[in-house]
Write a structure and sequence with these properties.
Number of helices of chain A: 14
Radius of gyration of chain A: 25 Å
Radius of gyration of chain B: 22 Å
Largest sheet of chain B: none
Structural class of chain A: mainly alpha
Number of strands of chain A: 0
Shape of chain A: flat
Oligomer: heterodimer
Strand content of chain A: under 5%
Number of strands of chain B: 0
Number of helices of chain B: 12
Largest sheet of chain A: none
Chain lengths: 326, 271
């Protein structure tokens, strides 16, 4: 159990690190943060009222005190109010979050369902032309810029063939549709963003699962199984396969920041109303409370995901727990 | 090393391609017309004899903009990777040479940086400090040094107890001298070549930033901002979509292939 406790302590340290990075970012910008909060809509304020606002937001306190106030806000999920519409940042984020989750969960499942089997299969064909060709193919897939792929898909399916909508989450007449039509309409809008999000992930999954299985196949107990005459197919599927899946757990933590980065581009191109689009629009509008709130939240989500993945890993692979004790 | 690298035809082609792009980028002003020459009479023209790759929405020659865009892509790619290497070498050397507490602290710092979605952090830095060539470089360099740091750390762990390092220590050299004069040059060579991945990723992110309109500001031609124009005319101007995308893809793929091949060539197990 000491491993889990140590891992939790590290997570707390990482959380403090995340907040320090964002706090430093906030304060490294010329001018003090209050100018972000007021300049856009209250230009006529007197020096006295500016001072009053500074006092209210603790900006007249030493930096360390300011930092503690700010972290206390974050722990209570209080990220301040947006400059764009004066609503709490957390409300705006929670409102858009389901759309991003929908897109990413579908893309994630699709990429895993296709990528992992291909990766495992190509590991069993190690050194053959088909394996080398697929390795190159995944490399090329991984090098394709997602915004270009999105444009090509739009060009092909929306402009040339006219079978799928260019962008948006649903058609203009969405509210007049029956439930079945609504589902159909929404699914049509899902196609292109999901493909754009999943193709590069698919390459990651395939490469990762391939190297995991290749690693396992090189172990002594596989050689032992082969030596005592276990059929080759059985060696791979019952002896190697299960152990190769364990490292895939770590992908859970690794892939989330990658997904969120991808969401910004994909949601912007397809005008998908999730947190990626919110983030980008907030950047353009210089809505710093929303930008920094989302930066902190996504980092914490990543932290929790990798913590969860490590816990799962320790649970699935007892060696981790034992190694920690020695 | 080179002998093993050469064994992959694909990697050799990639290397030749990168060299060709670099030469074209350096010679850009001599071999093409002015990339910013506006000609409203021939706007959004498809590929023709006068404009082999067509024109954009202001009648600017796409070929000239692509060739000049290579300068931005390559210089951002190399410079951002150089920054990442400097930061990464510093932290990696500290962690690998001293071990113990230094190693522990550097590991925690890397964990923190890896928690931020890469593009989010880059966008935040660029947005806070205003988009410019320099901000893009700093944002990319400051966020992508972690893999270099881990690489250097590993190399340091491997070589710090070797005879030449022990000899330097025995002769009374100070830590800084041992690190910078003796260990770093020996650790850097394999890291430098694998930085190929870093260049690929920097080029990809730079073009994404330009595409989103927060990269190197216009009118400087970049591959990303040609694609941003293409997005507005997607129903018509296919040449604006196709050519800059191919340029980004081939260049990123070339650097990735070189990095992959170098990694294999350095790995003694790959034989």
């Amino acid at each position: 159990m000491s491993y889990i406790i140590r891992r939790l302590l590290y997570a707390v340290l990482t959380f403090i690190g995340i907040t320090i990075v964002v706090f430093v970012l906030l304060h490294a910008v010329p001018g003090d943060p209050i100018t972000f909060y007021i300049s856009s809509h209250m230009t006529h304020l007197s020096q006295a009222s500016l001072d009053a606002i500074r006092h209210e937001y603790h900006l007249d306190q030493p930096l360390v005190t300011q930092y503690l106030y700010w972290v206390r806000g974050i722990v209570a999920l209080d990220f301040g109010t947006s400059i764009a519409d004066h609503r709490p940042v957390i409300d705006r984020i929670l409102e858009k979050l389901p759309h991003t989750i929908e897109l990413n969960v579908i893309a994630f499942i699709l990429a895993a369902a296709i990528g992992v089997p291909i990766g495992l299969w190509s590991a069993t064909r190690s050194g053959r032309p088909v394996e080398r060709a697929s390795a190159v193919l995944f490399f090329l897939l991984y090098s394709l810029p997602s915004f270009w792929v999105a444009l090509l898909l739009m060009e092909l399916f929306s402009v040339k063939l006219g079978v799928l909508p260019l962008f948006g989450m649903h058609s203009d007449d969405y509210l007049d549709l029956t439930t079945a039509q609504k589902i159909f309409d929404h699914t049509r809008h899902l196609f292109l963003p999901v493909i754009t999000l999943s193709y590069a992930q698919l390459a990651i999954f395939a490469r990762f699962s391939k190297s995991a299985l290749t690693e396992v196949i090189g172990q002594d107990y596989i050689t032992t199984a082969r030596a005592k005459g276990v059929a080759p197919g059985r060696v791979v599927w019952t002896h190697a396969f299960r152990n190769a899946l364990i490292p895939l757990i770590t992908l859970l933590g690794l892939v989330i920041p990658y997904l969120l980065s991808g969401s910004i581009i994909v949601e912007d191109i397809f005008q998908w109303d999730g947190i990626g689009l919110l983030y980008f629009n907030s950047i353009l509008a210089r809505d710093y409370p929303t930008v920094l709130g989302l930066t902190v939240i996504t980092a914490i989500v990543t932290l929790l995901a990798s913590l969860f993945a490590d816990m799962l890993y320790a649970f699935a692979d007892p060696r981790i727990r034992f190694e920690a004790r020695t | 090393m080179w002998r093993r690298f050469r064994r992959s035809k694909l990697a050799v082609i990639a290397l030749i391609y990168v060299a060709a792009v670099a030469i074209i980028a350096i010679l850009a002003p001599r071999i093409t017309r002015d990339p910013n020459a506006v000609d409203l009479a021939s706007r959004l023209g498809p590929p023709s004899a006068a404009h082999p790759l067509g024109t954009d929405d202001l009648g600017r020659d796409v070929l000239a903009r692509l060739v000049h865009g290579a300068r931005v892509s390559l210089s951002v790619g190399f410079a951002a990777t150089a920054i990442a290497l400097v930061i990464g070498s510093f932290f990696g050397a500290l962690a690998g040479y001293y071990g113990g507490a230094a190693d522990w602290i550097v590991s925690r710092v890397i964990e923190v940086v890896l928690c931020f979605p890469f593009l989010l952090l880059v966008l935040a830095i660029v947005a806070l400090f205003g988009p410019s060539f320099l901000t893009v470089l700093v944002a990319l360099g400051a966020t992508s040094w972690t893999s270099e740091a881990r690489f250097i750390r590993g190399e340091f762990l491997r070589i710090r107890e070797m005879d030449f390092a022990q000899a330097a220590r025995a002769s009374g050299a100070r830590d800084a001298r041992i690190i910078f004069r003796h260990l770093l040059p020996n650790a850097l060579a394999p890291v430098l070549v694998s930085a190929s991945f870093g260049v690929a990723s920097a080029i990809l992110v730079e073009s994404a930033l330009s595409f989103l309109g927060v990269g190197v500001p216009p009118p400087t031609p970049t591959w990303g901002n040609i694609l941003a124009t293409a997005e507005q005319h997607i129903d018509y101007a296919w040449w604006l979509v196709l050519f800059p995308g191919v340029a980004i893809f081939l260049t990123v793929a070339a650097f990735n292939i070189i990095g992959d091949r170098v990694r294999d060539a350095l790995d003694p197990r790959s034989d």
